[in-house]
Amino acid sequence: MKSKTNDVVFEWIEKEKQRQSEGLELIPSETYVSEAVLEAAGSVLTNKYSEGYPGKRYYGGNENVDQIENLAIERAKKLFNADHANVQPHSGANANEAVYFAWCKPGDTILAMALPAGGHLTHGSPVTRSAKIYNFVGYGVTEDGDIDYDELERLAKEYQPQLILVGYSAFMKVPDFDRVKKVADEVAKESGHEVLLMADMAHVAGLIAGGVHPNPLDHGFNVMTTTTHKTLRGPRGGLILSKGTVGNPLKKVDKTLENIPTLIDRAVFPGTQGGPLEHIIAAKAVAFGEDLQPEFKDYAAQIIENAKILAEALKAEGFILQGDGTENHLILVNVKDSFGFDGKIYEAALDKIGLTLNANALPTDRGAAFRPSGVRLGTPAMTTRGLGKVEMKQIAKWMRQVADICQKVENTAGLEEYADELAALRAEVRELALKYPVPGAKA
Fold first, then answer.
1. pLDDT tier, 1 (very low <50, low <70, confident <90, very high otherwise)
2. Cα–chain-centroid distance for residue 262?
3. How many Cα atoms within 13 Å fall on the side-chain side of residue 167?
4. Please, what sign has the CA dihedral across residues 227, 231, 236, 239?
5. Do the strands 84-86 and 238-242 form a parallel or antiparallel pair, or are they unpaired?
6. Rounded distance, CA 172 to CA 212, Å?
7. Quick check: helix, strand or coil at residue 377?
């Protein structure tokens, strides 16, 4: 990759390629896209303005863009057994806000997983815009890390929400979608209003597409949102899938669950976004095509297998895990209880040896966003690169070696005293990482 006018930018891009190639990505919300996805994302489609929807654009010259967007829609519907797909959201956050806007009025109640329990910022954190518009009520998790369904049911009957949301960013169980559907039906009967069931599956969408995780749309949920990166291995963007009757997005319809596809289309554009990013939609179409291939099912299954192996290896090294393991791709480690230091010190130390993850608050933390007790890690990126059982166990050993160093320091500055030991571990990580090339790194 070269440029005569922006050499400094491309120099940093090359350095990022090197960083990715020489390290191991453990952040559960990251993976690597194919060279074909990169090519589509960097295409001339970025030049085109395409406000509106296929066949209903505000500008001319969209005959090719329409074909690409329609292909992305059809592939997404097939992947998730959906009646409708909106591929225009710029991000998962945008997708969530569009669903809220489609169904709720200002002040309406949304029941969702609380942020400290593992929910996402867009599920009601007070720092977000949506939390200032809607009344979010948060449910929590049990001691073993599962959704507290009794609390969810109690809160649903108390507040009678317009929308019940199952979704998360730090949760390692498989939700009981049927139980939540039953609660929604009871609330609808008691309150006299329809309750929208929404699942934010940004983290596990690839597992759903790969057939190794239940699909909420098959269990009575009306809407599923997701990012298109993470386990789907697509470009950074959002996606909304729904059940119901697909109508003309230019015409108003009654607010009913049956009309939710049309309500969502109108909420995305012109409700909450302007022109879609058609180069990214093209990259989504490419990724969805890859996700429909038989080998993607093998990939999804291997993500979970690797996560279970890594979880057991970490436990063998003395790490305490939230929920004592994982049922999906994600692991939450309680480093505070395991070894006495906080997640930020551990994140910084692991970064020095080329293992990238993120510090993460645990449900038991209180006000610990900047010094949380845990770290969050997962296996999608490593699985994409081809790492397996042997490598998972080696990663756990490296993590324990770094933990032993962290026990000797009071803060990140103290890590400098162990620079030689960390450098030696960095060399070991680099040697292993280079055996498993990053897809598209030569593009």
1. low
2. 25
3. 29
4. negative
5. antiparallel
6. 14
7. strand
Active site residues: 49, 51, 200, 227, 230, 236
Question: Rounded CA gap, 232 and 213, in Å?
Answer: 13
Strand partners, 359: 375
- Give pLDDT, residue 7: 87
- Token pair in block for residue 161: 């929400």
Report the predicted TM-score, pTM, of the whole model to 2 decimal places.
Answer: 0.96
For 281-292, how does the pLDDT look when each residue is reduced to its tens digit (9 = 90+)?
999 999 999 999
Going 293 to 294 to 295 to 300, the CA torsion angle's sign is positive
Q: Which residue has the tokens 């009757």?
A: 245
Collect all residues with Cβ–Cβ distance below 8 Å to 159 and sequence separation of at least 6.
109, 111, 135, 137
Residue 344 structure tokens: 């930020």
Q: Which amino acid is at 32?
A: Y
Mean local confidence (pLDDT), 82-110 = 98
The three-state secondary structure class of 339 is helix
Instruction: Write down the residue that tokens 């939450």 correspond to.
Output: 332
143-170 confidence digits (pLDDT tens): 999 999 999 999 999 999 999 999 999 9
Contact 110, 139 (CB under 8 A): no
> Which residues 6+ apart lie within 8 Å of 211 measured at CB?
297, 300
d(CA 283, CA 374): 34
